[in-house]
Design brief:
By secondary structure, the protein is an alpha/beta fold. The chain is built from 28 helices and 39 strands. Strands 1-2-3-4-5-6-8-7 form an 8-stranded mixed beta sheet, sandwiched between helices. Strands 11-12-10-9-13-14-15 form a 7-stranded mixed beta sheet, sandwiched between helices.
Length: 966
Amino acid sequence: MEKPQDHVYPAHWEADVVLRDGGTARIRPITTEDAERLVSFYEQVSDESKYYRFFAPYPRLSDKDVHRFTHHDYVDRVGLAVTVGGEFIATVRYDRTDRRGLPASAPADEAEVAFLVQDAHQGRGVASALLEHIAAVARERGIRRFAAEVLPANSKMIKVFRDAGFTQRRSFEDGSVRLTLDLEPTAESVAVQRGREQRAEARSVQRLIAPGSVAVVGTGRAPGGVGRTVLRNLLDAGFTGRTYAVNSAFADDRGEIDGVPAFRSVARIAEPVDLAVLAVPADRVPEAVADCGRHGVQGLVVLTAGYAESGDPGKEAQRELVRQARSYGMRIIGPNAFGIINTADSVRLNASLAPEPPDRGRIGLFTQSGAIGIALLSGLYRRGAGLSSFISAGNRADVSGNDILQYWFEDPHTDVALLYLESIGNPRKFTRLARRTALVKPVVVVKGARHSGSTPPGHSVPVRRIPDTTVSALMRQAGVIRVDTVTELVDAGLLLASQPLPQGPRVAILGNSESLGLLTYDACLTEGLSPLPPLDLTTAASPADFRAALTKALTNPACDAVVVTAIPRVGESATMDPTDGGALGSALREAVASAPAKPVMVVHVEIGGLTEALSAVENSPPTSTAADGADGTEPRPDGAPGTRSGDHAPATGPAPGSTTATGTAAAQRPPAAPSGRIPAYPAAERAVRALAEAVGYAQWRRQAAEPGKVPEAIDDAIDEGAAAALIDRLLGGGSDPGGAPLTAADARELLALYGIPVRQALPAPGPDEAASAAARLGYPVALKTTAPHLRHRADLGGVRLDLPDEAQLRLAHRELTETLGTAAELRPVVQSMAPRGVDTVVRAVIDAAAGAVLSFGLAGAPSELLGDVAHRLVPATDRDVAELIRSIRTAPLLFGWRGSTQVDTAALEELLLRVSRLVDDHPEIISVALEPVVVAAHGLSVLDASVRLAPPPARDDLGPRSLPSY
């Protein structure tokens, strides 16, 4: 291993983290300039904690100690500090040692580690976060084990080590406990880390969205203006906590405004302030943030614009805003935000510019656009839907959709998560969180700015090398319902929040319009559903007729869902009955209440009052408590009938932050109480599209209940250690950070270590060399050009197959060089013939936005011209690869289409699993392309392969917890 230059400050070790209580802190390397901070920190540590650290009374640090603890080479001696407000609250240090415990350098791979946490900050998860980061640093520097000496009475520190999830050994020596931790991540350590991440981030959002007190900074002295509007909305919503108005221009004797206590600064407020809404000019924001930070405010909603959306100076101001807020332990929604809403009866928070807060409901809504947020709030309000919470993040400089998913995952008041996203700052984490959330409640996403180059101003995102269609496929693999428009977002949300998941695609259609029924039938076929013949009740049908027909349809075992179509009833006088809407709504609700739980939706044309009647039932609060679910009741991941609101919508359970590392608390919650609402739609196509999304999601839930696995058989012929050694040798010390391709021989050697043989191709610059190569390989052979412009282009004459003897080979070689160019230009090779089959392409690529992606398609026109390629995230399971090869449109060619021979799909699935394992085991591999892979009736042949390597990233998705920095 090449030793990094001593004393080069490793800036990539700096990280902002969220602690157990939801506050933030910064972790960074300790430098020589930290002497005073270290001394001040040590003075605030109790004598007991000092004793635990040094095993003896140690009241103060000597000058020698200070020098030792602030001078590091960042290789064999490393110190990290946790800071809040620029001051130390905790430190950790490791020293590399040899087998005798003496100071050492590489290749020694063990280090002594020691922690010290200020007493006032113990219990906040500081040591756990530090352990994650110092372990990642140690692995980066070639250290594989930590050793720690801990006094038996220091139970808190012993618990930190014990609960980390690393493989460990303990012994008792000379009155102390000696702990040895293997630093290689394990399934348990990753689960522990992600469980802590979820609890901390959920708590940080909860502090923002359920505050006990709110200060509006920038409240205008006269009615109107942003600050005064937010204050008015807080009061009108009936916020249950304390409210304060703050403006530096208030007169000293001004006691209140709109009945709210008024102050010139947050510092003058005698009580704690949990949340501050900033509505001041951009140049006044730093002063306001400092005022809030010094007072101990827990979070900020920054409505102020003029940041990254305004250009480069604004981007830097936005970065500084985040740095400043996090230095005080605060998180930010915004800047350029529209605000937040929490309809819980215990909170009733409307800290936004929305004049009409939504009704209380079961839908959580997150948007990155204020304008879209207004439109969505209005649409949901018109259609009688309620929200649990609403967050408009603006430039999402800090709090993002990932944080909100962490909160919603266990929020007992949210059954459906709706997100409008214009950018995804950490797509790998988003996919992981969305999949976990989708296992217990639906996640519906509409993505704006989908095309390259259209990232909205103010949003910093990784460069994406894969098309949006691929991103959509990967989202769906994670269980995300991806829709195209905000209208579809609302349509799907209404259905999922009020109805149970369908058990299948069979749809009953009934109504009083034959034409509308036929339109619905056609829409079902278009969306891939299985509609039953529509039942026409005729235009004279009464509400009682609808009730009877719906009851019969719901009790029909051949039906999984019902679409009711309705037009205004016309009597003998040819006039519309004005009471039809209310009466019909009541009749339909009565039928639903008395029948088995299946999703019901209504498509109606201009029936006044029907939408209101269908949504008139109040949202019921959860009827079960967390204790009620302690009887071992399991969730219903298949969406089986249960309560009317649907088994997919857990509604009770622990508050955010109480889950275990594996999320079992959420999985054990009982279903939600029924809402009694029936969603109504103005067009059949919209209703059926929403139903199709619910059917697809229910099917994903059923499959996810029994996750796929990686068969142990693929371990045969895999030599991970030898592959790692080969990669290290090929990368050497001076590799291009952007990656470099391997030679054909090196690629073949690497792939062979994972049981992926590549058929050998020998160079044939002249006819004699071609004949010699064919003699070695055996006839029949193929003669191919490998020039980039002719590679894999049999249609241009660059490939000659089934050459049976030397004469035919020499003739083919002459024809190639006469018609296509010189041998030096064509780079011809000779290869033995593979059994006939279907030519396919297998690829894996590491994308900055999506992570490792495995792709499959048929070679040639299907994939290159038609884009018929399927994708899955790595690591892939047996189920993933089986779905992968069956999800392309041309898949029938693999399964005996029109009498052709069915190919060996089992061998193809095994190959895909091996490629997935290869790129998952070795982050240095940034791309693999196997083309073509000829899949025959028995077995397959990889005819050509290319591999690119690059130095691995310093941190990956298995790295320590940290907040993004844009």
